[in-house]
Amino acid sequence: MDPLDFLEPAELLSFFHCHKTEMSCMENPQTFLCQLRDHNLIPEDRYQKMIRMKSKNNMRKAVYEVLDWLERKKSDHIPLFWRCVFKEVIVNQYPTLKLLHTSLMDGSFHFDPQLPKRVESEESDERGSSKLLDSEEKQPRSTKKKRKVRSGSICSDSDDEQPGPSKKQTLSPKKKPKKILFSSPKKNEMSEIWTWPIYKTQLPVTCGEVEGMLKRDKLTKGEKCILVGKEWFTPSEFERFAGKESSRNWKQSIRCGDSTLGKLIKAGHLNAAVYKKRSKPAKKSQFSTRHLNTDEEDSRDEEATLEAQASSGEATEEEERSDWAEVSPVRDKTMFKVTCGALTGTLHKYRFGSGKCGKSIRTEMSWLTPVEFVNVALNQGDASWRKDILYEGKPLSVLIEANVLAIHSLLCKCKQCKPKPEDLESQKNDDECCICKSEGKEELVVCDNCPRSFHQKCHLPHIDDTILRDDSQWMCTFCVFKAIEGCRYPDKQKTEAVLSRQISQHMLECPYLLLYLCSADEEQIFATNPGQYLENYSSIIKTPMWLDNIADKLQWKEYQTVGEFVSDVQLIFTNSATYNKNNPEYRGMGENLKQLFDREFKKAFNIQD
């Protein structure tokens, strides 16, 4: 008989209550969460959300919240919880669980201090704030057919829904939406600079006393990825350049802040291809025929490669094992640029169900299923979506056979495969805000004329609550601008004349131009005040400017002329060029965005100088 059978459920529940915080602080809780998921102890949507988290602080908070939810909502499952996490393979991985198991088995937990009875404050009771406000206890709000407000619950209690392998989480509405949600690092995340938006494409790294800038995509492709001055190095070359060649393990000798690259790679913050000694070409292609091999064939390939490298003296045995342990970057991707004929789109993995289930491909003007995408592109009813849709020149079937994309079971009951009417309506629009690139916790307001979605205060002008209550169709600023584009300025305009005009006459063009910039700034580099996360910024830049500051000025009508608005936009690019004069990567981002603005500005006002 299991020793846990001698313990009363109330004892196990009390023990669980006292040790939730300890369990939420366990390092790398992915295996722990997988075990809970396999025993149906946590909802699928909450699990999917947590495994994508990169911040340790956010992960700890999320683990505690799901344990707290389990205690409150599924307390009768606590005995099952202890049985599944006390499996030998799980306990051996987590010292915290081993200590808890020992405490239960030897009875030492009886000596723990008795907890006082839990009470709510009188003030909370009087205000009614002691009521449960967790999002999982709220009923999911239905999506309207017109002017839909996308919302849902973080945690679903439904037992009959069986999500498919790529089921997406939904997020609960929040009472007060923020301003434009351009992200910047929080105080408790200041040490984890690899999660900052400004370091999304590159990271500052050191090896010994030498500093450099690591380009993430070049590391993924196995190219020379570290820039020192004007010279590019592979990680091994950078290690030698810094005088650390004797370590022969760049994943440990090269660091970002206090963390080694090996630690960041293992945690999923970086993707690294296989690097070989003596500048040999890196392992090819993000998804080659290797992905189609069985595990046994992969093992034989790995052994043969290691044997060949060992005989040629190209790398140490430890380095080779480490390199081959890396997972191909394509498996971590969630979006894939696809084509079919002349039509292009982006396939979103979490929306994919099968050829006919799940509108998973986003084109410029609509969301389509793979079958619909092929029919629109080729106008052929008998076309094969697996063969005719291409990713990097290869048919989509390659991703399916490599288990990068998983076709849902015919019995799957997820929202992609067995959608309710409101789910079908919801699939027509984006799941994240077009401007701030996040789902956030506020409701998303969707355009009835295009696939875009917006937070109320991300759109310009802000979307008022009275508009949401109106049953008539609503078009976003992008669609309104496009609808009247041909009749605004039949005659050619001059730049000087446009800049001197009152901005009150152009409260369509200027908000459109700013929303266009925000949407084009995919990595949100120019969204927030750089002084919040760059220590020496204020000493170099005396007049900072950023996109959401301009948005506030537009919303509150602080500009008098079009020229004042344009001057602030150009100030962003000037500041970027000044601050990043020794950083070609970020200087190039500012220059590219400036070119986009200049071109769209002339187009919007029909300027021809």
- Indicate the proportion of strand residues: 5-15%
CATH topology of the largest domain: SAND domain
State the separation between the terminal residues, measured CA to CA.
88 Å
- Stretches where pLDDT falls below 50 for ≥5 residues? 122-146, 151-190, 277-327
CATH superfamily (homologous) name of the largest domain? SAND domain-like
- Estimate the helix proportion, in percent: 25-40%
- By CATH, the architecture of the largest domain is named Roll
Q: In one word, what is the shape? A: globular
* Major sheet: arrangement of strands: 11-10-9-8-12-13
Count of the separate structural domains:
5
Protein name: Nuclear body protein SP140-like protein
Biased composition (Acidic residues): 295-305
Domain SAND: 188-271, 325-406
Biased composition (Basic residues): 141-150
Topology:
Layout (H helix, E strand, L loop, with lengths): L8 H10 L1 H5 L5 H9 L5 H8 L4 H18 L4 H8 L2 H4 L3 H11 L16 H6 L21 E2 L51 E6 L2 E6 H6 L4 E3 L2 E3 L1 H7 L8 H4 L1 E2 L2 E2 H6 L28 H18 L4 H8 L10 E6 L2 E6 L12 E2 L4 E2 L1 H9 L6 H4 L1 E2 L2 E2 H6 L19 H6 L17 E3 L6 E3 L9 H5 L7 H7 L1 H4 L6 H5 L9 H12 L16 H4 L6 H9 L6 H18 L4 H22 L4
Antiparallel strand pairs: 1-14, 2-3, 3-4, 4-5, 6-7, 8-9, 8-12, 9-10, 10-11, 12-13, 14-15
Helix pairs in contact: 14-15, 24-26, 24-28, 27-28
Overview of the molecule:
Helix 14 (295-312) runs antiparallel to helix 15. The chain has 28 helices and 15 strands. Residues 122-146, 151-190 and 277-327 have low confidence and may be disordered. The protein is α+β, with helices and mostly antiparallel strands and 609 residues long. The strands form four sheets. A six-stranded antiparallel beta sheet has the order 11-10-9-8-12-13. Strands 2-3-4-5 form a four-stranded antiparallel beta sheet. It folds into five domains: 3-111; 194-326, SAND domain (Roll), CATH 3.10.390; 333-426, SAND domain, CATH 3.10.390.10; 444-483, Herpes Virus-1, CATH 3.30.40.10; 486-605, Bromodomain-like (Histone Acetyltransferase, Chain A), CATH 1.20.920. The chain is globular. Residues 188-271, 325-406 form the SAND domain. Residues 1-109 form the HSR domain.
